[in-house]
Amino acid sequence: MRAPRLLLVLPLLFAAGCADLADLADDAASSDAAGAGSEVSNEFSATAPFTVTVDPAALTAAIEALEVAEERDDGYDRSLFPHWKDDDGNGCDARDDVLVKQDRTGGLTEADCDGAMTGEWISMYDGETVTASGDIDIDHFVPLKEAWGSGAVDWTTEDRQAYANWQENNWHLIAVTASSNRSKSDQDPAEWMPVDEPVWCAYIWAWVEVKTEWHLSVDQAEKTALLDYTASSC
Question: In CA terms, which of 2, 66, 194, 214 is 20 to 30 Å from 188?
């Protein structure tokens, strides 16, 4: 399964009706859309494993386009999202793949998987520099419980596994300090934001990107927070 890209998936949804996420994703994956007017790459920025120049108007439009619905958390269990799998068959599970990809020294390879790693990771949420992999958590930018309540409750196990291990960009899964990840837990931006305020605009952009790519809804408080942070931080 490949995830649909921002905004361009919407006309596909209307055309395909109830088509499987994977079918829609294959149609959209070749498109280069990270939000009309915003520029993004997987190049590291000073404080994040990606670089984005946000167009506030485009981000606002993307937020307004998200479905608003109450979260449906009943029945959630983390095991319903098979995670830390080696979906690409390279011998590294998804956690180790992210550690290698987001290491800033460039010295880690697949040969370093399945063991303690020494490198350099900058945690987007608190600006901390970490050199030991044991002090790093790999965060689902939109947490698994949040995804469940926002639409993944209706997905197949295959789709939930794809979501849990997705590595086609550097913002879906992100290496951060264990303390900041546990502070965030499964909270949305109405409830939690990084302590490092300069990343707030990029944080909101990435949250909206994931929600849009995966057809996930927002609740009303979440939408209000996304709009407010866009207006004040972008």
Answer: 2
Q: What is the pLDDT of residues 14-68, one digit of tens each?
A: 333 334 554 434 433 333 334 567 899 999 999 999 999 999 999 999 999 999 9
Q: What does the alpha-carbon distance between residue 221 and residue 19 come to, in Å, rounded to a whole number?
A: 29
Cα end-to-end span (Å), the chain:
32
State the pairing for strand pair 136-140/173-177.
Answer: antiparallel
For residue 188, give both structure tokens: 């949305």
- State how beta strands 129-132 and 173-177 pair: unpaired
DSSP state for residue 81 in the 8-state scheme:
S
- The number of beta carbons lying within 10 Å of the beta carbon of residue 177 is 22
pLDDT digits (tens, 9 = 90+) for 129-162: 999 999 999 999 999 999 999 999 999 999 999 9
Which residues, in sequence order, are bridge partners of residue 68?
Answer: 218
All residues at 6 or more sequence positions from 118 whose CB lies less than 8 Å from its CB, including other chains? 131, 132, 133
- Amino acid (one-letter) located at 153: V
Rounded to an integer, what distance in angstroms lies between the CA atom of residue 91 and that of residue 55? 39
